[in-house]
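Sequence, please.
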């Protein structure tokens, strides 16, 4: 239960530039022993429809009505974050809200352009890009 694990969502386009950000996320986790998310300013999102998931203040994640950051799909957790969950199916938002309430969710800001494959339309637009990202 104390061993950390990395969760990587498959609907984000990842590239080698994320390697150093993952290393920084690991350093933060092992220094604090708190769950960590890689988040990105919504202004760096290819898909401009995102409203924002979180805010960040000195690595501490919170939420309000004006969230400036999007979850990239990369996080480090340990199994103890699930201790209070009894349902077989649940949203990660339930976990994150619990961690935020207890000031146990940290984050690092990504500097990468964020490409999230959430619709066929976005997928088609990304395929048409001529970029070196």
């Amino acid at each position: 239960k104390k061993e950390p694990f990395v969760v990587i969502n498959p609907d984000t386009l990842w590239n080698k530039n994320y390697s150093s950000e993952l290393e920084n996320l690991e350093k933060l986790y092992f220094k604090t022993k708190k769950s960590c998310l890689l988040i990105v300013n919504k202004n760096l999102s290819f898909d401009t429809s995102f409203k924002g998931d979180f805010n960040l203040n000195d690595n501490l994640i919170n939420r309000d009505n004006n969230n400036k950051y999007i979850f990239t799909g990369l996080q480090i957790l340990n199994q103890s974050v699930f201790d209070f969950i009894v349902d077989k199916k649940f949203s990660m938002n339930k976990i994150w809200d619990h961690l935020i309430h207890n000031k146990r969710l940290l984050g690092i800001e990504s500097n990468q352009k964020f490409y999230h494959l959430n619709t066929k339309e976005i997928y088609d637009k990304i395929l048409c890009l001529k970029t070196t990202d």
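The chain has three helices and six strands.
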